[in-house]
Design brief:
With 175 residues, this protein is of the alpha+beta class. Helices cover 43% and strands 25% of the residues. Bound molecules: ligand FNR.
Length: 175
């Protein structure tokens, strides 16, 4: 269990108040269980925190989605190396409906413990995704900067770069 002192409490407050979907996984526990998920995550996926706490976030995937294989390999590598990553995954909501998820992962070390912050953005209609994904990246950058104030370490690219990466991934997703 995480020790609830300054870094963790600061991150939890920011995650709870965030305008974007956020999750926090404990990388120092076996299989990186989720310990936090905010209201925006619940609104997007239909899963409340109580239902996801202690689970690895792969429950959003269905076993039979081969399209996820490359993304999952990239995620495993990023977790192992404690590196940031942006990647698109096919996911399913609580009600079974599917959505394409632009996932942002950023490693953060709080109070001597390693975590990964994950932010989920739904890719649906192209024009909307084009308009909103960079803004999502900017809002996430602002949250990361605030978490960084009390973090031992955080890996985050410059907000402009993150916004450009989000726009690039949306256009690649659109084909
Ligand atoms: C994830 N993962 C993840 N996967 C997914 O399909 N949808 C998601 O929203 C998320 N969110 C997420 C947040 C955080 C903080 C982490 C650390 C990870 C990825 C998932 O948990 C897992 O790491 C990948 O599926 C790769 O591992 P496996 O399943 O190939 O062992």
């Amino acid at each position: 269990m995480p020790i609830e002192n300054a870094g963790f409490l600061k991150a939890r407050g920011i995650i709870e108040r965030s305008a974007v979907a956020l999750t926090l996984a404990d990388l120092d526990a076996p299989d990186a269980p989720l310990i936090l998920a905010n209201a925006r995550f619940e609104r997007l996926t239909g899963y409340p925190l109580a239902e996801v706490q202690g689970k690895n976030c792969r429950f959003l995937q269905r076993a039979d989605v081969p399209a996820n294989a490359a993304a999952r390999a990239e995620i495993r590598r990023a977790i192992e190396a404690r590196e940031e990553l942006q990647v698109v995954l096919k996911n399913h909501r609580h009600d079974g409906s599917s959505f394409d998820n632009l996932l942002f992962l950023n490693p953060v070390r709080l109070d001597g413990r390693d975590y990964m912050l994950g932010s989920q953005f739904e890719l649906a209609e192209l024009s909307r995704a084009m308009a909103r994904a960079p803004a999502h990246a900017v809002a996430l950058s602002d949250d990361l900067a605030r978490i960084a104030e009390k973090a031992d370490r955080i890996q985050m690219s410059h907000r402009r770069h993150l916004a450009d990466t989000a726009a690039f991934l949306v256009s690649r997703w659109a084909g």
